[in-house]
Amino acid sequence: MTWTPDAATSHLEEIAKVRGITIVWTEKPPESHPGYAMVWINPPTSPIRYLTALHEFGHCIDPQAVNLWKFCGKRENAKDYRKWINAESAAWGWAFAECRPALAELVRERDWQMAGSCWLSYGRHLALQPVR
Ligand SMILES: [Zn+2]
């Protein structure tokens, strides 16, 4: 099977419709905001972009995936890495549970490595932020 962005795009649009979430298509790094029920996602031109988009939906939909310090202004949670690690894991878990298996099979090893190193660098960045 080769990658066809159309199938991935219609799956993402279907989730948005069913869940009442607004998609903003962007080429900037993906983001999500559960409070506004919005995701800023990249057009799924590759399998990893599709899974990452699902991950952002997960942040809006799965209660465990809502990053409390980031989205609820609870700065006291900023240094509780267990909370945001759990939120990130839950958002990926949601993405895996909801993805179309045939599409997810096309994600390559180096895509996962890239996603993993992004996550780790995000964590490192957080660790260096002062808590106010
Ligand atoms: Zn995330």
Keywords, separated by commas or semicolons:
single chain, 132 residues, mainly alpha, 6 helices, 3 strands, 8% strand, binds zinc ion
Biggest sheet statistics: 3 strands, mixed
Sheet with the most strands: spatial strand order: 1-3-2
**Contiguous helical run count:** 6
Total individual domains: 1
Q: Which class of secondary structure composition applies to the elements?
A: mainly alpha
Total beta-strand segments: 3
Distance between the termini: 50 Å
Average pLDDT figure: 84
Q: What ions, cofactors and ligands are bound?
A: zinc ion
Q: Outline, from the CA principal axes?
A: globular
Strand content: 5-15%
Helix % is: 55-70%
Describe the protein's architecture and organization.
There is one protein chain. Helices cover 58% and strands 8% of the residues. It contains 6 helices and 3 strands. Strand 2 (31-33) and strand 3 form a beta hairpin. Helix 1 (5-19) runs parallel beside helix 2 and helix 2 crosses helix 4 (81-98). The chain starts with a helix and ends with a helix. 21% of the residues are buried. The chain binds zinc ion.
List the helices and strands and how they pair.
Elements: H1 5-19, E1 22-25, E2 31-33, E3 38-41, H2 47-61, H3 68-71, H4 81-98, H5 101-104, H6 109-128
Parallel strand pairs: 1-3
Antiparallel strand pairs: 2-3
This protein binds zinc ion (ZN).
Zinc ion binds at residues 55, 59, 88, 91.
